[in-house]
Amino acid sequence: MTGLALTDVLEATGYLIGGERAPGVRLNEEARANRRGRQFEPDALWRSPSAVTVYFKYVEEEPSKDHIAEWRREIWNEGFAPLLWVISPRRIDLYNGFGRPVQADDALHHLLRTFGAIEQELQHLDALAGRLAMETGQFWLQAEKIDPRTSVDRALLADVSALERDLLQAHLERPAAQALIGRSIFTQYLIDRGILDSAQLARACGFSTFPDALRNPTAAKRLFEWMRSVFNGDMFLGGEKGLEARHFSRIADFLLATDPASRQMSLFPYRFDVIPVELISSIYEQFVHSAAGVAKPQAPAGPSDASEPGPLGVHYTPLPVVSLMLDEVMDGLSGRETVLDLTCGSGVFLVEALRRLVALRAGGANPSRELVRDVLYNQIFGVDISHAAIHVAAFSLYLAALELDPDPRPPEALKFEPLIGRTLNVGDALEIDGAKDATVLSDSEGGLKRFDVIVGNPPWAFKGKAGTARRRERNRSGAPAQPRGEGQDFVRKALEFAHQSTRFGIVLSAMPFFSASGTGAAATQDIVRGIAPATLVNLSALSPWLFPTAKMPAMLLLGRCRPQFPDQMTLVNVRWSPAGEKAGTFEISPSDITSVSVDQWREERDRLKGAAFGKGRDIALLDLLRSRCSTLKDWLQSVGSDLRVGLIRGGSNVRTYDASALKGLPLLRKGKLKPFSVPEVLPLFDEESAERPRERRAYHAPLLLVQEFVQSGGRALTAVADRDLIYNNAYFAASLPHQQREAADLLAAIISSAFASWFFLMTASEFGIWKRRLLKQDVSRLLLPDMAKVLERRTASRKLLEIVRGIQQATPGAEDWRALDTAVFDLYGLDDADRILVEDGLTRASWQWQKGRLSSAAPAEMENDLRPYAGVFVSAIDRWLRTRNVRHMHAEVFDLPNAVPLRIIRFVLMDGPGPSTVGIFRPQEELAQLLDRIGKRLEFKLARAIVGERELRVHSTTELVVVKPNARRFWMRSAALHDADEVIAESFSGASA
């Protein structure tokens, strides 16, 4: 190669395929038009569905380090671009787009790696940051130097938080401090955007730079007074009362990046004309929380004591959630629709809705100012109970309108009309009544307006008994209501503002959707029916990074966005991945999407949980077992027992019940149980009273004990106690008749088995969704084989009891647990395929812990994952082929390097009867060439079709190629069963010939 062209590099790394752009790629003018910044002009970009962006810049001569530093600074401010590629004829330099700009040698400081203009180097580049590596998340596993914690959003929020703290320490009242910061950021935005220049500054206040004006309090006040008169609207409400020179000076220090203690200056990294408006609005959101005593932006609040201090439901909705929701809710709109957010907070949904409506109405052309203002004043509506939040929303929408304005000059031509009282309303959305209240949401006849799109992230807080009583009083319709929390109340209220075609997108707590409570399930099913057809997007697995301070997991409830059968709803179960957490993106595969019958969900409350964590075979096995098994609760009742929660000691102020009858009994506390074994030495209970002591008979031996929290491997922890003892509320237990002592050991074994782990994953209310615990009703619903018959089958029961005794004597190993699981499978009469489902269910149960999550995302291994997957797949197909017995199947597992982002298995139909076989194939070409070769043979553009986390099955009349990301969770044996079922259902081409 004599010299690289941009197209050479893009072809070698999969961003161009056969001269055509891959999905997400934009070139030349289109790439430049899709940038927020105005100085850096890329020659190409690639953008993922989650907005992660890679920029490509081609230069004939190597640019100066200062040029690269300026490009990188602008990209960093944009917040979505982890990579900048600088391509010249002889080399490709990769720069970290998430690294905070530094004063000196910024380019060298953030240079990740350099690749030469030779084929081998381009192959290494493709493996690291090619399109497939980006789309499958493989890049994030290799790019350890790229740290989202140094991105612009975190840096700016931290710096503004420090700025606010310093102003408060300088004896400025919080509202005045926050107003000063907001005005200053808005002014700097106008300067960065070029709307306000040095000459205008000089005419307004006598100084040509903003920091100089801030050093002079009189000039600063004159400047802000002038801006108040120019922009009008709700932008500069309030004055400069209480502001002193030191306060203005601290703002100047911030804008000049001067350390207030050392007086040393560094590089001010921020470009407010580039930073997303949603991020700037989140600064104000942070203000709302700091005023409420919250240290940092919160996710939706979870259940709390009514006396607990906290915000009034104003919370920051992460931008990936906003994009995911609006991508669905606003797909296919005309641009003339009206949008309402009943809990708008800082306006993050409204800002993005404004941007999208303007783009739709402009139809690809630059929008006029008149169009932008028409959308702003007539199509965007919001309500919030917090005055501060509504001012945030107004500020955010004004900034978004300025950003969309094609020529925002001169400042005097940019006057805004007030939004508060026109399209934004301060008040409790649940109390709005068009017939009584003169609000912005009332129509001309005194009724409530109807909107085309209703979105929002309502508060999830549980406000105690007083809040529940108020909610019940307000629920005059008699519709089933969520027992705890008010999130669903806002959905019911939203329906009052809807017409038959209104689309909905609401962020709610996921807990009621998987609730075992009849009341909670009825309420949730009622709101789903109200906005049907519905799509549920379960974000529970992402809680640690998506809503880190939330006390509940999240669910997106989307309504009327896409046609479905009347009885069906779509369920999307978004999985955790290390790449997704690091990049702040969602990875959704076809295998994560399923359809659920609303009627079946109504009949069986755990049907939704089973659909989220299982597939058709899991549901079928559950149905089969329910038809021939009774529950643990049924069996306990048949022997005169039941499962109970243990003693609650409680604080001194709530220990009101007599517990003296329990004194002197051994006390089993949390964390003391071992598999099938109760410690010999336990402390004695020595209390006269307790909050909930339970009856003395609840502690009679023999006791079947079940720990509330599941062990890290995914198994429930059980044991049988042969002496009376007290167990606290970390356990459930059943006191059994002495003649059922052997049954107790068998039950303990079943509850600790892989079968129970699979069952709890499919049916339990919280396990797998939020907390790693079981509820009493979860354990009570465990399906059991006929215990009388089990006890009669002495060989099977004794074998299981011997395994239990062995585990009691020593620390159990993998072989011990495997033997126990096999014995339990025999009791239930599970066939080979069912055993695969259940064993993989235990593995999936272990994904609730970090070690398990990392294992699920680790590269698939040949012997542990790929070969077993292929073997199960061909066996499942072989059972179908044997009905004709004229063909068999051979599988070729492609042996690819661990760093490759995809795995490939080829299945070939062979003439003649015979056993199906599995072999290993070691291709000589690189992944891109391999995909191209397979695609040509199958007449399918394989490389082009792989977008994000997509899984592909491509077939001709005699062969099938399965392509999936290189992560173990895609290549489990149970996945092979499900894939084979789908292939058979699709009538595998040529199989019946």
Number of helices: 39
Would you tell me the overall average pLDDT?
87
Helix content: 40-55%
Shape: globular
Notes on the protein architecture:
The two termini are 49 Å apart. The relative contact order is 0.06. The model is unreliable at 294-315, 942-949 and 988-993 (pLDDT under 50). With 993 residues, this protein is α/β, with parallel strands linked by helices. The longest helix is centred in the first third of the chain and has 20 residues, at 174-193. The protein has five domains: 6-147, tt1808, chain A, CATH 3.90.1570; 153-275; 319-334 and 349-358 and 422-612, 3-Layer(aba) Sandwich (Rossmann fold), CATH 3.40.50; 630-850, Adenine-n6-DNA-methyltransferase TaqI, Chain A, domain 2 (Alpha-Beta Complex); 858-985, no CATH class. Helix 28 packs across helix 32 (794-809) and helix 29 packs across helix 34 (832-845). The protein is globular, with a radius of gyration of 31 Å.
Concise summary:
This protein is of the alpha/beta class. Helix content is 41%, strand content 15%.
Key attributes of the depicted protein:
5 domains; 39 helices; six-stranded mixed beta sheet; Rossmann fold; 15% strand; 993 residues; tt1808, chain A; alpha/beta
